[in-house]
Amino acid sequence: MSTNGTAVDHGGALPETRVSGVSLRDIVDCHHVGPTLEWLENHAPHVIADELARMDAISAGIAFRLLDKDRALDVFEELEPVDQQQILTGLRDERFRELVEEMDPDDRARMLREAPAKVAKKVLAGLSPRERRMTAALLGYPEGSVGYYMTPEVVALPRNLPVVQALQWVRTKGANAETVYTLPVVDAGRRLIGVVEMRDLVLSSPDAMIADLVEAEPVFVRATDSAEKAARLMQGTNLLNLPVVDSEDRLVGLLTFDDAIEVIEAADSEDVARQAGTTPWEGHYMAAGVFQLARYRAMWLTLLLVAATLTVSVTDFFSGTLEQAAHLALFIPLLIGAGGNAGAQAATTCVRALAVGEVRVSDLFKVIWRECRVGLLLGTMLAIVGLVIGGLFVGAEIGVVVGITLVIICGWAATIGGTMPLLAKKLRIDPAVISAPMVTTLVDATGLIIYFTTAKIVLGI
Amino acid sequence: MSTNGTAVDHGGALPETRVSGVSLRDIVDCHHVGPTLEWLENHAPHVIADELARMDAISAGIAFRLLDKDRALDVFEELEPVDQQQILTGLRDERFRELVEEMDPDDRARMLREAPAKVAKKVLAGLSPRERRMTAALLGYPEGSVGYYMTPEVVALPRNLPVVQALQWVRTKGANAETVYTLPVVDAGRRLIGVVEMRDLVLSSPDAMIADLVEAEPVFVRATDSAEKAARLMQGTNLLNLPVVDSEDRLVGLLTFDDAIEVIEAADSEDVARQAGTTPWEGHYMAAGVFQLARYRAMWLTLLLVAATLTVSVTDFFSGTLEQAAHLALFIPLLIGAGGNAGAQAATTCVRALAVGEVRVSDLFKVIWRECRVGLLLGTMLAIVGLVIGGLFVGAEIGVVVGITLVIICGWAATIGGTMPLLAKKLRIDPAVISAPMVTTLVDATGLIIYFTTAKIVLGI
């Protein structure tokens, strides 16, 4: 083929350009089989999967059944576990079995964990004994562990082979393996003693010995280790695949780069969701119902509202001050807004620095000292603006109150925002739970105390 | 080796466990050469790079010069461009040249873009003509493009070879290539006509022909395409490397998986920073100075403060209402807090959904309709809590005002928060710029209008 012709549907085809056409959903919903078939034929598997994920279960099922056999598998592999489940429940038994048998064991295990017991049972029953055994083993690892994500189908090499025989070995045993690029070298007890990259096999002379090519101090992880940490380790070391061993150092699988990317992306999505005060979830935004979207936000929103009752109490407590200087009310939103923003900046920076490993729990006091100075510096800068705003709206005296409050609030907010994620981690709570809105709400109440106290002192009331 | 012995420094060694020991920084700062050498010998390159990144330029330079030659290169490759530059400026010419010549052309180009002109000149002058040519070509691509990140050292295969000869071809030409796992197949004019995976070469019979193995409709991108979109395409299709072509479909390089992960991580970090209202930057948190940290937050914080002047105007406008019912002031922080949170949730969800491609610009009206209903639903739920809080602190009438305000504010905030990122994208602004604090500040001012208007109507003032 010439790359000119089909560029638009593949690489040149970055998501934007696809939007111009009619969407699969529209075609299917109009019950036109012909156009649907044509659309399916003219789009790449990952594009089709993307469209299916946006559709409701019934339309997606109709479109999927119209795919021819080979493409159906390609598309199916690109789908998220939730969507795979939906598709499966709509299929006849024979096709159901075929699809499930062809999946990689790690993808299958991940889908099964989220599937209702009835579907899971049916899936396992339809598998060949070999595939069933591997899937069952993976199902034993806890969520979020390396074992949960690894592939158990690995080509392991013995130590004393020449390269030409090792390549022959890979050719014989590698057909089912998810990757043949990282070849763990094991002893007779299947204990990991090193790693050979396929690159080294291919580039070496055929008579070279595996023992001479082996990386003898391989980076590896245990199946029970955290998948996110393992994935970030791969990112830090630029490794394609990471050998996984059990508690007795026996090779049990490989964590592949595509699963690592997925782990990192899921962790980042989760951190982002937490930072905004919503519960993380894995569904597709456009496929979710309104009630479902609301449910994921409801808990935090309610908690934050209840916590905000503190601000009512504080204002109530200072109602005398507020009565004597009614103008103070004008600046409440501005001041707690500034404090909230300064706190959210510090919190987000520190949560991220913790996640990528730039900051460690032992840095607690260094972080407090840094953020306190950063906050005071920013507060001093804002105070100049605040002085002007306060002066213009009411008068110089209120301007001074607003200015001083800004310095103190920003110093305090940045310190709290930077410190809380570290404290959370120390207490073994996910630092991302210390979300920006949580810091903001806390800073709101304390900020009001700072404001009214400053006002009482400066205005002498 | 037995994996037991050194597990702690490598894989088993996920970042946490490293903290227990003394840090490299402490050892170097005490001027103990012996312990420094010992520490360097006992840690893996990526661990050493991690520690160097946390240190100031001088200490890092001292530690780096103590590394032996081979390990120095390994460590150097793990460093970020900024840190590489710092290290380089402290080295004598001979070692400087060696290190730079050994780097991958794409990494070198990335470092050079950020280096001061003096360093860049020195680097280019010291290179062999071949390396200089490749680096110069990469320097021609704009920041954020695929060309900026790709590796130009690719093994391209002609179409009509048997597998055994293709493997021989790779063995001869592959030594300098960054990867040999994705082998683009080109015609006589170096135009991309397909891709062969090394996996297929290794698993096929030696007499099979390349023409039969080739994936004839390869996914590819252009060198001028957005690197983030290309990286997300790789993530979506689970491709290890993506062929890159120029405007005439000629092969110019490969985007490798490790660069793709880096692109995605950088984009995510940037989105997170923007969501918190700070300017994204690439430095290391612990290595940054206080002034530097403050600088990255100052602009947004000031802008948001100036925008918050709106809230002062609105409150000032309604000061008559506030005088007649002073109790209204008590609930200002709570109400604008709830609106801000609901808006931030919607904004963050939609920015993320846009980034990963779940939502498209053409979904604008669907998103408005969804978020509006989600917001009203959440608002109704919060209204019950607000009714109780308002009733307890002041009385039933204020409770009703607070309740009604919550319903309207949440519906409005979620709609605005969900819509603004899409509008930004439509106007070709990065949606992540529509940060949570920006939505919050906007909702603060409009929320006050909603509050005071509701109060006037319900209380009849």
TrEMBL record, chains A, B:
Its domain of life reads: Bacteria
Keyword set for this entry?
Answer: CBS domain, Cell membrane, Magnesium, Membrane, Metal-binding, Transmembrane, Transmembrane helix, Transport
Membrane-spanning ranges? 298-318, 330-354, 374-394, 400-424, 436-459
A GO molecular-function annotation = metal ion binding
Domain CBS positions: 150-202, 209-272
**SUPFAM superfamilies (UniProt xref):** CBS-domain pair (SSF54631), MgtE membrane domain-like (SSF161093), MgtE N-terminal domain-like (SSF158791)
A GO CC term assigned to this protein in UniProt: plasma membrane
Q: Which Pfam families match?
A: CBS (PF00571), MgtE (PF01769), MgtE_N (PF03448)
Its localization reads: Cell membrane; Membrane
Query: What is the protein's membrane topology class?
Result: Multi-pass membrane protein
Q: Which SMART domains match?
A: CBS, MgtE_N
Q: Supply the NCBIfam families for this chain.
A: mgtE
Function, as annotated:
Acts as a magnesium transporter.
Family the entry assigns: Belongs to the SLC41A transporter family.
Task: Tell me the subunit arrangement.
Answer: Homodimer.
Identify this protein by name. Answer: Magnesium transporter MgtE
Name of the gene encoding the protein in the UniProt record: mgtE
